[in-house]
Amino acid sequence: MPQFKALVVDKQGEDVTLNIQQLSIDDLPKGEVLIRVHYSGVNYKDSLASIPNGNIVKNYPFVPGIDLSGVVVASEDSRFKEGDEVIATSYEIGVSHYGGYSEYARIPADWVVPLPKGLSLKEAMIIGTAGFTAALSIYRLEKNGLTPNQGKVLVTGATGGVGSFAVAILSKLGYEVEASTGKETEHEFLKSLGAASVLSREEVVSNGRPKSLAKQRWIAAIDPVGGESLASILSQIKLGGQVAVSGLTGGASLPTTVYPFILRGVDLLGIDSAYCDYSTRKEVWNRLATDYKPNNLQDFLYKEVTLEELPDAFPILLKGQAKGRILVNINS
Question: Confidence band (pLDDT; 50, 70, 90) for 207?
Answer without folding.
Answer: low
